[in-house]
């Protein structure tokens, strides 16, 4: 096929075409679709190859799929499918995958691809066909249904189609426990507990000793809040300690997904009691304990992992995080610097630099970040942003501005640096420059909640365009409704508009989740205006205890003090 295409390549004519921009196949020397099926096939393959070389993915997809009208060659169909997928052309990919699946009925890849595209395009009849073909092509029926369940999960806008397809299959195969199990798994993932419960009961009735069916039933019970019954089910499963530990580990993960943290911690403990060397169980316990604020329990788990050499880099990262939360920057720095590999390596080194600053050594922190720019040249913009952030938090906006300028000279397209620079400009009173940077961010990313919020807050503070400011903040809040920084901005603009009760509601919500000194300044001012001066004093005093030099907090108190009103 490719040889034929390359042979014809010498016949390409002059540029300009309605098929491929800047390219044309010379109809006088190359066979056209009207001449013969073979010539038409070669024509479309050649056009597709030339489109690929020119970077025209969508045209390449159309040409390759058009070639399938003249050939059902398996390799051509597979390549056409891959090209269309790469081009993001789902409908074309599905057409090609149908030919591929028909040409290679025993290929699991072909059947799985066709089924996935049937789901993506919403073709119920096609999905029914390819779902059955996928199961038939798998190494075993149980494996096939497991693969099908995984494929049909995770597409929330196709939940009904996925469940309807599996319901039909389960009804056609009422004696197949794997079919019932697949229906139950997918229904549970989509929150259809009643369907999942009925399917789980059928699966257990058909194969009562199958751990997969029992675990599904336990998952249904967990979703219903019946964790004790779920634990009892799992405890009755046979197997050695290591296998039974895996059951409890699976149960713990199901509980985490159901937001049942305390029960999950108990399940992790049971898994470790059966298999103390199970690193996955210990890691899960540590991460969950950290997420619920049980720092001591988390630290114990991660220290054991580190000492045993299991996931040592991850363990060191989390131990650094725990030390940081315990206000021990020296210890946190030590742990962070031990992270050499893995997904946390870069973040750990940046955090280590931050911990150097937290110990009072700004010069050392900046030197560390400068050295990291040599180690991670591809992360230059993030490292400049980290340095600028440190300086900004240290109330050195002029130095921060210089860093952001240097970073943008090295990475002029960085929106992160431009956003950071806008904050430095604002702190320095250069409001027009701050607006320009934020607008540049929004020109590139119109839905950037952080920039929308910052621009709204800027307008609320430095203009009387409160309606415009509120509109920007509303857009940000719609994207991130629980973000305390955005709640603070909304409260502040409501205050500036004179809506004290509404302002107080937003600010109290923000302060409850994020007792930042700036939020404290705003909430205290609203309370003060409402006549609740003792409450305002308590909030300001608490904030000043840890942040005596915070500029906004200090300005708020000094401004009211100049009126003879502050504590």
Automatic annotation (TrEMBL):
InterPro entries recorded: CellSynth/LPSAsmb/PSIAsmb, TPR-like_helical_dom_sf, TPR_rpt
Keyword Repeat: yes
Highest taxon of source: Bacteria
Keyword Repeat: yes
Alphabetical UniProt keywords: Repeat, TPR repeat
TPR repeats: 245-278
Protein name: Tetratricopeptide repeat-like domain-containing protein
Organism: Salinisphaera orenii MK-B5
Lineage: Bacteria, Pseudomonadati, Pseudomonadota, Gammaproteobacteria, Salinisphaerales
């Amino acid at each position: 096929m490719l040889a034929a295409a390359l042979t014809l390549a010498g016949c390409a004519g002059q540029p300009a075409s309605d098929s491929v921009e800047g390219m044309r196949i010379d109809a006088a020397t190359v066979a056209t679709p009207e001449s013969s099926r073979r010539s038409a096939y070669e024509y479309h393959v050649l056009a597709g190859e030339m489109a690929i070389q020119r970077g025209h993915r969508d045209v390449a997809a159309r040409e390759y799929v058009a070639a399938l009208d003249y050939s059902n060659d398996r390799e051509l169909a597979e390549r056409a499918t891959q090209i269309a997928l790469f081009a993001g052309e789902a409908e074309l990919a599905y057409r090609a995958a149908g030919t591929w699946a028909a040409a290679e009925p025993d290929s699991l890849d072909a059947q799985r691809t066709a089924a996935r595209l049937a789901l993506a395009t919403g073709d119920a009849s096609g999905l029914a066909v390819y779902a059955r073909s996928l199961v038939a092509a798998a190494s075993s029926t149980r494996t096939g249904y497991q693969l099908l369940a995984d494929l049909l999960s995770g597409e929330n806008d196709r939940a009904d189609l996925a469940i309807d397809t599996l319901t039909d299959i389960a009804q056609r195969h009422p004696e197949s426990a794997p079919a019932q199990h697949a229906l139950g798994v997918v229904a549970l993932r989509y929150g259809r507990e009643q369907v999942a419960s009925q399917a789980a009961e059928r699966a257990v009735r058909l194969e009562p000793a199958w751990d997969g069916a029992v675990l599904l039933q336990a998952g249904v019970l967990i979703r219903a809040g019946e964790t004790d019954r779920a634990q009892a089910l799992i405890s009755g499963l046979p197997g050695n300690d290591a296998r039974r530990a895996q059951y409890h580990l699976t149960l713990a993960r199901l509980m985490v997904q159901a937001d049942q943290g305390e029960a999950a911690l108990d399940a992790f403990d049971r898994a470790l009691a059966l298999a103390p060397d199970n690193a996955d169980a210990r890691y899960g316990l540590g991460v969950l304990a950290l997420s619920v604020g049980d720092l001591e329990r988390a630290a114990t788990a991660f220290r054991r992992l580190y000492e045993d050499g299991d996931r040592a880099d991850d363990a060191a990262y989390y131990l650094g995080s725990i030390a940081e939360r315990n206000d021990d920057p020296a210890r946190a720095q030590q742990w962070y610097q031990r992270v050499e590999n893995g997904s946390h390596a870069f973040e750990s080194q940046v955090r280590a630099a931050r911990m150097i600053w937290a110990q009072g050594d700004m010069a050392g922190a900046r030197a560390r970040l400068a050295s990291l720019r040599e180690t991670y040249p591809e992360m230059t913009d993030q490292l400049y942003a980290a340095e600028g952030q440190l300086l900004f938090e240290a109330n050195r906006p002029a130095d921060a501005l210089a860093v952001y300028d240097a970073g943008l000279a090295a990475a002029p397209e960085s929106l992160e640096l431009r956003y950071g620079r806008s904050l430095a400009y604002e702190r320095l009173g250069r409001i027009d420059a701050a607006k320009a940077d934020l607008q540049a961010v929004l020109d590139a990313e119109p839905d950037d909640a952080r920039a929308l919020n910052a621009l709204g807050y800027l307008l609320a503070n430095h203009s009387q365009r409160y309606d415009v400011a509120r509109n920007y903040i509303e857009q940000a809040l719609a994207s991130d409704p629980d973000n305390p920084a955005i709640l603070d901005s909304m409260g502040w603009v409501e205050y500036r508009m004179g809506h004290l009760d509404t302002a107080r509601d937003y600010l109290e919500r923000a302060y409850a989740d994020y007792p930042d000194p700036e939020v404290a300044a705003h909430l205290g001012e609203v309370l003060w205006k409402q006549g609740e001066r003792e409450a305002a004093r308590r909030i300001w005093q608490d904030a000043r205890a840890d942040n005596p030099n915070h500029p906004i907090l200090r300005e708020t108190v000094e401004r009211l003090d100049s009126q003879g009103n502050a504590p």
